[in-house]
Write a structure and sequence with these properties.
Alpha-Beta Plaits, globular, 2 domains, Rossmann fold, 6-stranded mixed β-sheet
């Protein structure tokens, strides 16, 4: 669990003082993939650095897995940080070390036995899909492969939290999707809490369950991704939505008894789902047909339809 309560981070003094993070309140449940999105200068990177103590809050409390990061001593932070992994936009690999060497480095610093380091390193190479490349140097790797090394290194000390600072913005679209799918798989397999900082709508929509939108150091909107991006309240969020073409609605085949017809109409009236009826025809003692629904609302829509006694299948 990550909790921020009235957190601010100021730089400078007097008239030149800048509030990079301003009175932020956030609660991120354990095991969730949580996105923080905003334009350049919104305060995203400062926010993520507050989570591992690279920055200290000017005011407020930052709690990560029960530890008050802002109030912790340097000695206490050294004990906490191995459980907070971090990956970066430009990978930050050591060019004088091989893939194995880069992944092993945090474990060497932690003083783990050599046998355990070797075992864990090979395990991580397999986890991130770099089999056969353990002896390669960073200069021999593609951007996506370098980021896979960065992810493996961040997981070396078996963290509970993984912080991702613009982790895909230096990658092409196809490689971005591969890295996002890898992160989603790691989240499912290891139960990690992932906090993902980005300015890319696609990143949030692909793997995040919840999102916070930042502007001028403040969190101006937060909630489940489907809720925030299907009914954005703030102009900044609306601009993010407007940058991408609307996705094609998903088609679902439905069958329902007569008594479920009114429940179907009530669900279709909900603006959050963007559900519309199509080709609804009588069949025996009920109806069959098709509905169109916004992709982001698909899971919620299917759950509501089935709870109403309506059979649903992909169209």
């Amino acid at each position: 669990m990550i909790s921020l309560s009235a957190v601010s981070r100021h730089f400078g003094t007097g008239p030149s003082r800048v509030a990079a993070v301003d009175q932020v309140d956030l609660n991120i449940p354990g095991g969730e993939i949580f996105g923080v999105i905003g334009y350049s200068g919104a305060g995203k990177s400062t926010l993520i650095r507050l989570l591992n103590g690279l920055e200290r809050p000017t005011a407020g409390r930052v709690i990560v897995n029960g530890t008050d990061i802002g109030a912790a001593s340097e000695r206490a932070l050294r004990q906490v940080r191995p459980k907070i992994g971090m990956i970066f936009q430009h990978f930050n690999l050591l060019w004088s070390r091989s893939v194995r060497g880069n992944i092993a480095l945090p474990m060497e610093i932690a003083g783990l036995p050599k046998d355990e380091i070797r075992r864990r390193t090979e395990e991580l190479i397999g986890l991130v899909g770099l089999e056969g490349r353990g002896d390669h140097w960073p200069s021999q790797l593609s951007g996506g492969q370098k980021q896979r090394v960065g992810i493996a290194r961040a997981l070396a000390n078996q963290p509970d939290v993984l912080l991702c600072d613009e982790a895909t913005s230096a990658l092409d679209p196809e490689t971005t999707d591969q890295i996002l799918d890898l992160l989603a798989g790691i989240n499912r397999r290891l139960g990690l809490t992932i906090v993902l900082i980005t300015h890319e709508m696609h990143v949030v929509r692909r793997i995040c369950s919840s999102v916070a939108v930042m502007e001028a150091g403040r969190v101006i909107e937060t909630g489940p991704v489907a809720q925030v991006f299907t009914a954005p309240r703030e102009p900044v969020t609306q601009r993010f939505i407007g940058q991408i073409p609307a996705p094609e609605p998903k088609s679902l085949s439905i069958r329902l008894p007569d008594e479920a017809a009114q429940r179907l109409l009530a669900i279709a009236a909900s603006p959050d789902l963007g559900l519309s009826l199509k080709n609804l025809t009588r069949e025996g003692n009920g109806f069959r047909g098709e509905v169109l629904i916004r992709p982001l609302a698909l899971a919620d829509g299917v759950a509501q339809l089935r709870a109403a006694g309506i059979d649903v299948s992909e169209g």
